[in-house]
C-alpha cells in the first residue's frame, strides 16, 4: 500500500468532499441519493481511519462492521456505532427498486431520512477527523 498517511488523507478528503455535497442532494429533493451517499461518505471516512492504522484490504461496506473494526484501534468508534448503524440500510435500499416492496427508493425516502443520514455521516467524519488530526500532520504511527 502507498504511504498510510497519504492514503488515509486521500480517503478522508473524498469523504469530506462527499459530505459537502449531501445538502445539495437533500435540497434538490433527491433523498434516496442523499441517503446512499451518506452511507458512502461514512464508509470512506472509516476506511481512511483503518488504512491509517495499517489495514490494507477492507472489503466491507457495512458501517456497523467498519465501526467495529475501527473500535479495535480506538474505543470512540464503539461509542458511535449504535448511533450510525442505520446507514447500513441505505447501502442497497436507497438504490434498488427490488429492495423495497411496491415503491421505489425515490418515493420511499424523505427529507427526514436525508437529514438523519447527513447527521450520521457527519458524526462518522467528525470522529475520524478528530482521530487523524494530529497524525495527518505527516507522521506515521508506530508499527
Structure write-up:
- The protein has one domain (4-133): Up-down Bundle (Four Helix Bundle (Hemerythrin (Met), subunit A)), CATH 1.20.120.330.
- The protein contains six helices and no strands.
- It has helices spanning 4-27, 31-52, 63-71, 76-84, 105-108, 111-132.
- Helix 2 runs parallel beside helix 3 (63-71), helix 2 (31-52) runs parallel beside helix 6 and helix 3 runs antiparallel to helix 4.
- The longest helix is centred in the first third of the chain and has 24 residues, at 4-27.
- The two termini are 14 Å apart.
Terminal CA distance reads 14 Å
Number of domains: 1
What is the name of the CATH architecture? Up-down Bundle
**What letter string, H or E per element, gives the SSE order?**
HHHHHH
Which residues form runs of ≥5 with pLDDT under 50? 135-143
Look up the CATH topology: Four Helix Bundle (Hemerythrin (Met), subunit A)
Q: What percent of residues are in strands?
A: under 5%
Helix run count = 6
Q: Give the overall form.
A: globular
CATH homologous superfamily grouping:
Nucleotidyltransferases  domain 2
How can the largest sheet be summarized? none
The value of Rg in angstroms is 15 Å
Quickly name the level 1 CATH class. Answer: Mainly Alpha
Mean pLDDT: 92
Percent range of helical residues = 55-70%
Amino acid at each position: 500500500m502507498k504511504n498510510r498517511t497519504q492514503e488515509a488523507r486521500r480517503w478522508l478528503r473524498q469523504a469530506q468532499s462527499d459530505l459537502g455535497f449531501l445538502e445539495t442532494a437533500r435540497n434538490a429533493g433527491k433523498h434516496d441519493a442523499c441517503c446512499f451517499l451518506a452511507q458512502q461518505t461514512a464508509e470512506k471516512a472509516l476506511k481512511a481511519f483503518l488504512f491509517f492504522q495499517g489495514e490494507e484490504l477492507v472489503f466491507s461496506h457495512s458501517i456497523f462492521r467498519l465501526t467495529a473494526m475501527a473500535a479495535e484501534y480506538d474505543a470512540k468508534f464503539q461509542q458511535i456505532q449504535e448511533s450510525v448503524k442505520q446507514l447500513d440500510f441505505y447501502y442497497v435500499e436507497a438504490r434498488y427498486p427490488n429492495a423495497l416492496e411496491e415503491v421505489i427508493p425515490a418515493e420511499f425516502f424523505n427529507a427526514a431520512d436525508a437529514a438523519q443520514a447527513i447527521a450520521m455521516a457527519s458524526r462518522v467524519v467528525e470522529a475520524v477527523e478528530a482521530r487523524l488530526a494530529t497524525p495527518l500532520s505527516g507522521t506515521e504511527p508506530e508499527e
